[in-house]
User: What shape does this take?
Amino acid sequence: NAIILDDPVSSFDSDSKEAVAELLVEHAAKRQVIVFTHDLAFLHALKVCAKRLSVGVVSHWIRCEDGQPGYIYLDNSPICEGDYKSAQLARDFYTRAKAAAPAEQEQLLQQGFGALRTTYEAFVIYDLFNGVVKRFEERVGFDQLREVTLDRGVVEQVVDKLGALSRHIDAHLHSDAFATDKPTPEMLFEEIKAFEELRRRHKESKKATMSTAAKPVTKTAEAA
Assistant: This one.
């Protein structure tokens, strides 16, 4: 039989959460296990255990929008950050949205902008800060600090884009009041291209910075 749990680790300490996560993953190897939770650390523990034990895990994000609960974003939750290191998932939603009927297109575009926003979040974690700090792990990869470079222009664009994409996600896509601002597949495609250009710019800036730092310092006879 399946196991369905709703917030099973409320008030648990981190060790207990990990123990419960491992137990549930072991069960998931033999039966379906469904967990509803607000606890992102526990969710992360489930994913880590599932990977270690080679058990499949799928994570969806459920939101309340405009006072209405139950909006679901498939395969798009905070623990999926590693799957969003590129904009490919947003591109997939763009491709599907182009050929979809109007009602379905609105939903696909909303999910596409949501996927791209998650890609920007992953960019901050894995590119800007080089994976030094993970959101759901205590470990800090201090050795990776040596390769952290911050281009102020890139940082400002990331902040601006995260705000803009959030408005597309939260917009009342079905309302006539937002007809003039209603997202289109073309708008999503332009945002995807903007992200990929930003990522290219960051890589070039990082490469140039690291190259400069690696050059030996030559002292003149007078300075010596």
User: Anything to note?
Assistant: The helical segments are 14-28, 40-52, 88-98, 102-128, 152-170, 185-214.
